[in-house]
């Protein structure tokens, strides 16, 4: 049987895999796999068959994706050498106390179960280094003072309203995920000297950091909270690379904490009711990506041009009428830098005056036209719409609608359409090969973020021959076609953050310059990516892979690419 095959393999490898078998209990033959009938022992050293004395101890027990309601207590009695217990995606409500016998057990993975409380047995395992309790029904946590060796603690997608202060004392903690709960306050971070990643998005926090330095922190995601300020005072964040703060209430915050993050590369301040940029932002000279979208900016300060490393600037969704949405980020950044240089060289200009790009930009780009049909509950784009449009749009806004298929009537604007925004619709798949031989030769940016796209299709026809930027953030993609470069031959920027990518191939990435693979499920980063010499920005945080190690990731794109090249 398949179970017997799994047992035979486990006796050779020390790794038992009985996942995805519809099991309601652990099979008896598994629990007795090391039992030997003394009356049947035959010692024959000339035989080539597997012998009982050749069996290795079981170190990894993997029973995920079954229907287990109760875990047999004999698991803790029979397999004393276990280091990893993977029980994800079952129906467990507790764990047997016999697991305390597993003195070598360091990794427990129990996401997607029915746990309403932390099993007491886990609190008696001081050797634990990784504990995944995400996607359960936890409403509160007990003190965790005995788990002082924990390095990874995953508690996302539960019903927690608070965290015990003892979590703040976990001095070995490297990764803490408490996203998608109802937490109003984080514990004092006094002992988090090794913390590298903090995910707290989708909670009710009003302030993010306590007044303790976080010398190892590299990534923070605090989107969708109620943040009014980041911290009450300055704190040292010497290794922070990314901080995501969208959908908060930071309109009156001074953000002075950012001046203590000298390596910060990504800052997301979208959806924060900002009408001005705090001076602290201009001091972060390491910034490469700045997202100011969906705020209340009437103009962008030319001082943004002083950020010498800035490569990506997002501003859509602000009430700035004189900046066509068809303007590329690169173009806008250059305009800001040129204007800043002109202001610095104009002795007659008032030192306090900073008009930003409002005004001058309009005279140069008045011909650019935008068709805004966002937030209209549209599930189609009929020909009748086309006949009512008396200009040739360069930018079309169709985000936040109900579209589930590509609006083919957009081909009426094929010669002028440069930027197309289809984020926040209902696409479940998307074909880069449009029917009826439709081609959009002028399209340069296509935004498909925040849909439910699980399948990206290519074909023989090139429908987007000049597309340079494709945004697929926050979809459901588990894989990518290797034919992607031939489908979009001019693609330079590919954003895939927040998908479900597991296995990827470097063949999918052609001649990209910017590649964002953050927050996926990638178990192996192909070394061949290091051979794509056009890549200048590579984002890979928030995945499963263990190499390159965090120390390499912290050094940035150049170090990661060099690491990968050396392993081809």
From TrEMBL:
Pfam family, one: LRR_8
Keywords per UniProt: Leucine-rich repeat, Repeat
InterPro entries: Leu-rich_rpt, Leu-rich_rpt_4, Leu-rich_rpt_typical-subtyp, LRR_dom_sf, LRR_domain-containing
Keyword Manganese: no
Cellular component, GO annotation: cytoplasm
The protein's name: Uncharacterized protein
Organism of this sequence: Phycomyces blakesleeanus (strain ATCC 8743b / DSM 1359 / FGSC 10004 / NBRC 33097 / NRRL 1555)
